[in-house]
Design brief:
The protein has a single domain (30-114), classed as Trna Endonuclease, Chain: A, domain 1, CATH 3.40.1350.10. It is built from 4 helices and 4 strands, in the order ααβββαβα. The chain has helices at 2-8, 13-26, 70-81, 92-103, and strands spanning 31-33, 47-51, 54-60, 85-89.
Amino acid sequence: MYMDKMSKDIPHERKIVESIRRELKTLDIWHVKIHGGAFQSLGLPDIICIVGGRFVGMEVKRPVVGKLTEIQRAVLGKINAAGGYGCVVTSVEEARIAVRNANEGYEAEWKAWR
């Protein structure tokens, strides 16, 4: 019951994605929102962009209540293994950090995600 009340105060994933996309647009970063479907590979990140010539895949989750699936975790791992930057973000601020880290060549820190 408590979690139900608390989760109502947490923004929906769609709103978080919209906010991140607005920020990427202001930063003049090419990006695309991936919409899942029957004819698409499973586990692709919600937002794909190119930052400083580096492929970036952002899986957007709701803070506190969002869960990463095993397929999503595997895809992010493959992106990172290939030299891209695959990460989980829950806010515009985390997306800004991901953009900065990808641009500076850091490794993604997503492994601890639940």
